[in-house]
Design goal:
2 copies of one chain form a homodimer. Chain A is built from 14 helices and 18 strands. By secondary structure, chain A is α+β, with helices and mostly antiparallel strands. In chain A, a hairpin with a 2-residue loop joins strand 4 and strand 5. Chains A, B: One of its GO terms (molecular function) is peptidase activity.
């Protein structure tokens, strides 16, 4: 059945890509209210396809949270009729997770082809969401279709599918659903394809993720915008204040100065550190081709992989307010914002990290300035166990497709749902992703290497087969 | 003749305000390219009125500078037929200066009535440009009309009028014209109404102005926008870099840390400092009603008037780049900007100040960041002499209108043209302005107190009379 499903997938490659393109044309940018209709269209697109391929109980589940009162819907589907094994034991249930929302596409002028008009170039498919996560989520759907088709409408395992539309805005909707209706997602393992391979041709499982807190610091000075000629020297300047605050958050080397911030940080195991050293990683090549800056930054004494996988970091994403047009406006703005986030590692908790951040920022607030320090969203850091049958099934599946041993890495980004699955559903997650390091996630010219799209589908088909065997 | 002109102005008050409203409806925002047509319409509006009231040689003079290749036009007019005095001596020539361009109106949502729909409330006229400088420039035109009308088409002095459309973007067009065609502006004194009265009912002449340099610091890190989860801890962050730079430009007290920046600063004379101490200034009232911040900032050891009139200052106006929308985008932007300006006082020069700024900023550039430090525009600081017949004529004119002695103050803002007139044309400037401290220049809800509009016209009529006597 697995071999027939692989054959089906191979024969239908062109159609699978065409369908993905249709999905990518929907600008489902979850953070921008003006795209709410598009986000819903993307949900309906996914639901319709799950229904078409033979999944059951397909429905949209509305979400409503404090953060997003008009939340974007979850897409749910299941198929729970896998024949028990010869010994009568029921087959395991796999919970497939993905997200259909995408990051905003700006800056638009840096895209070579428009972000919502998918274009194939050099074996890659370029579009916002190509790899994060529409393309990878679509691999799940297409693997299920291939198995359904080869199995005469049956799957080798029980499957539930949950696809969210708020991953890029914190995912509070699905987190709340998992907390309140975990029974509807009962499973033995979760499968998440929202990560990348460490290098081309190198099958990779991600076994650790950083958590995060995304914050806004709002600084208010004068009651209204003032003329910097008339009031410069007397009125507090919110941008200068934010600069003074930000400059005290990290030292010149990149060490975070928030008191207590590193207290709970766990060092990776010696075995893990040793394995990371063996990975094919060339720091100079990484600087040159991936980052493209004159030099790298970060805490001295740690390798790049340690700094991005196993150390907390702090970044500023934008500083709205004041005058941002071309030319000159001599204003002392009444208020300014800094959007700052911190990545967390085990055993830090978002709640404690935010409390430390807020207390410290408030303690260094410059004269004449009033601050409002807000938590926009957060996610737990996690490390998953590598010692279970599902991880073994995944490595086996990828070995067959790639002909190579799988490497275990961590990811620097956050997939908060993995922590929720672990904590609320008590299920381990297999993070089997097929992105590449140069896929430009969250940046202009995001792409998905199409060979990996197809290898991903085959790997997932084989994973289901191995789990069901 | 002067008395008849004052009578004419009083009879035509309503019409004068209506005309000003028509001018204020034209959104002549010089810094925004999309308003170029509006800026020209405002120039044509002013030229048409100068022609109608009987001024001669009225014309638009196109400007073209490196900064603004498609510059906004100057409006020129003259009337040079004043009858010589009884002893045969020719009457002096007054050069009236104003500007018809305005600052951008943002943030729009803080305006109580739309910025380009003038509205009268409580004796004030609210609109962008009401006082800076359309309303004050219009006082000149209406004073000339009143004198023309009372004098049967004649004025008591020779008059040239030059009105620019680039004051809010650096005024390089008029500066170039003054340098290259100074002979066309030959005069004995310049009259500038672009300043304010120190307090309501207190006739004020401004005798000193701060200069300025307006700069942009562009910081570039990675080649493209990167995901802060994947690259946080390795990729340089341009916002963090700009924050580190800005935090080193001023200390916590507001002292500028740029080496050599204060070297050329001249202390005001003891007489000037004594006069400032005698001005009706209540720091707590100023903090509460004008600034509205929890406390004032600035260099310790200097009064607010010294800090805003006679000390250099540094402000940040906006920090474009990165993600500024609602919600969260976890991007490490490839580039970010800081718009920063410094106010200069005698005897600082913009060229030296910018060189010091640029060298210092480059010397503290953080690792992994490439900087581009640009000068957007600049203006000289100036102090004008108070010992001449024109200043005496102005104080006399205002004493008649206000019934009070005139106070001499400085302004914290910049009117670069005053320096150009002094340097290139060798003429002193009388800065007789009728704004009020709470007029919200460059801010939402800009206004002009209409009583001051009318008293300004009368004062200018009397000034022309006194100069011609």
């Amino acid at each position: 059945m697995v071999q027939a499903a692989v054959g089906f997938a191979q024969k239908n490659r062109a159609r699978f890509v065409d369908e993905l393109k249709s999905l990518l044309r929907i600008p489902s940018v979850s953070t921008l209210p003006e795209h709410a209709g598009d986000v819903r269209r993307a949900a309906e697109f996914v639901a319709a396809e799950l229904r078409r391929i033979g999944m059951e109980n397909v429905r949209l589940i509305e979400t409503e949270t404090k953060e997003h009162p008009d939340g974007h819907p979850l897409v749910y589907a299941d198929w729970l009729h896998a024949a028990p094994a010869a010994d009568g034991k029921p087959k395991p249930t796999v919970l497939c997770y993905g997200h259909y929302d995408v990051q905003p596409p700006d800056p638009l002028d840096e895209w070579k082809s428009p972000p919502f008009e998918p274009e194939e170039r050099d074996g890659n498919l370029y579009a916002r969401g190509a790899v994060d996560d529409k393309g990878q989520m679509w691999m799940h759907v297409k693997a299920l279709e291939s198995l359904m088709s080869a199995g005469g409408g049956k799957l080798p395992v029980n499957v539930r599918v949950i696809v969210e539309g708020e991953e890029e805005v914190g995912g509070e909707g699905i987190a709340q659903f998992v907390r309140e209706h975990g029974d509807q997602l009962k499973a033995d393992v979760a499968l998440v394809s929202d990560t990348e391979m460490f290098a081309p041709e190198l099958p990779t499982l991600c076994v650790g993720l950083r958590g995060m807190i995304y914050t806004e610091i709002e600084a208010r000075g004068a009651r209204t915008d003032l003329h910097s000629g008339m009031y410069g020297g007397a009125a507090p300047n919110p941008f200068v204040a934010l600069a003074q605050i930000i400059a005290k958050l990290k030292d010149a080397d990149g060490k975070i100065l928030i008191p207590g911030f590193y207290d709970k940080v766990q060092k990776p195991t010696d075995a893990e550190l040793k394995a990371w050293k063996a990975l094919p990683f060339d720091e100079e090549h990484y600087r040159e081709t991936e980052v493209g800056s004159s030099s790298l930054t970060g805490e001295p004494g740690y390798s790049v992989l340690e700094r991005t996988w196993a150390r907390p970091t702090l970044d500023v994403h934008g500083m709205p307010g004041g005058f941002t047009g071309a030319g000159a406006k001599t204003v002392i703005p009444a208020r300014a914002l800094a959007k700052a986030s911190m990545r967390l590692v085990p055993d830090m908790t978002p709640a404690e990290a935010f409390a430390q951040f807020k207390a410290y920022v408030e303690s260094i607030c410059p004269k004449g300035i009033v601050l409002d320090v807000r938590l926009i969203h957060s996610g737990d850091p996690i490390v998953v166990s590598t010692d279970n049958a599902f991880i073994r099934a995944a490595t086996e599946a990828m070995r067959e497709v790639f002909g190579k041993e799988t490497v275990f890495v961590r990811g620097g980004g956050s997939i908060p749902i993995v922590g929720d699955f672990e904590r609320e559903l008590k299920v381990p997650t297999v993070m089997m992703g097929f992105g590449l390091p140069d896929d430009n996630l969250h940046a202009p010219n995001e792409k998905f290497h199409l060979a990996n799209f197809h290898r991903g589908i085959e790997s997932i088909v084989r994973f289901f087969g191995a789990v069901g065997a």
